[in-house]
Amino acid sequence: MDAVPIGVVTVSDRASRGIYEDKGGPAIEAVLGRILTTPWHAKRRLVADERPAIEAALRELADDEGCPLIVTTGGTGPAPRDVTPEATEAVCERMLPGFGELMRAVSLRVVPTAILSRQTAGTRGRSLIVNLPGKPSAISDCLDAVFPAIPYCIDLIGGPRLETDPAVCVAFRPKGS
Ligand SMILES: Nc1ncnc2c1ncn2[C@@H]1O[C@H](COP(=O)(O)OP(=O)(O)OP(=O)(O)O)[C@@H](O)[C@H]1O
Ligand SMILES: Nc1nc2c(c(=O)[nH]1)N[C@H]1C(S)=C(S)[C@@H](COP(=O)(O)O)O[C@H]1N2
Questions:
Q1: Which residues does ligand 2 sit against, CB inside 6 Å?
Q2: What are the C-alpha distances in Å from 161 to residues 49, 61, 166, 171?
């Protein structure tokens, strides 16, 4: 099987202008590198907190690049320029609110402001899109928590079978699937 393309989208005004170095994209790749045993490669995008740019990146990664999984970081809070959840909803056909619920619950053990994140997830065709907060430390908190459900979700939407290192993350698939 060819290496699976995975979309890694940083949404940040300052990182996209080069004011600071993007630490979010590399942090997502580090978590995926720990968890996945299936060969994969990142399709990295860095965009400002602008709905059209975020939506265009998500559409391109899903429709043209064929990414079964697209992970975003940043732009999930309540500030006026935080629009990643709106962009995600606009491009998705179906939402999966359980992802946001679990990630907020896990993050609440780390920081009380976890409730400020409107992070969500949804599907566009054969792609699962998952939002993470912008703080680089939030990335492993959130992605480790939801990853056990991601391979089966991708099975269900017709994507490739993703295998994980069971010492790091046990992917749950119901018996017989
Ligand atoms: N991609 C990133 N790389 C490095 N640090 C980041 C990144 N995104 C966020 N941070 C850090 O986490 C903090 C909170 O993230 P948040 O997404 O709220 O940033 P922000 O205030 O919206 O600014 P911006 O959109 O310019 O990143 C930032 O102030 C910054 O210190
Ligand atoms: N695990 C974790 N979740 C977190 C945080 C964090 O530091 N760690 N920061 C919170 C804060 S302060 C905000 S404002 C929201 C939204 O962040 P974003 O706008 O960078 O996506 O995520 C929240 N969730």
A1: 74-77, 82, 107, 110-111, 113-114, 116-117, 133-135, 137-138, 141-142
A2: 32, 18, 15, 11
Per-residue pLDDT, 175: 85
Atom 6, ligand 2: residue with shortest CA distance: 138
21 in a domain, yes or no? yes
pTM above 0.90, yes or no: yes
> What's the CA-to-centroid distance between 13 and ligand 1, angstroms?
8
CATH of the domain at 20: 3.40.980.10
Ligand nearest to the CA of 114: 2
Q: Which protein residue has the closest C-alpha to ligand 1 atom 4? A: 23
Cα 27–chain centre separation: 12
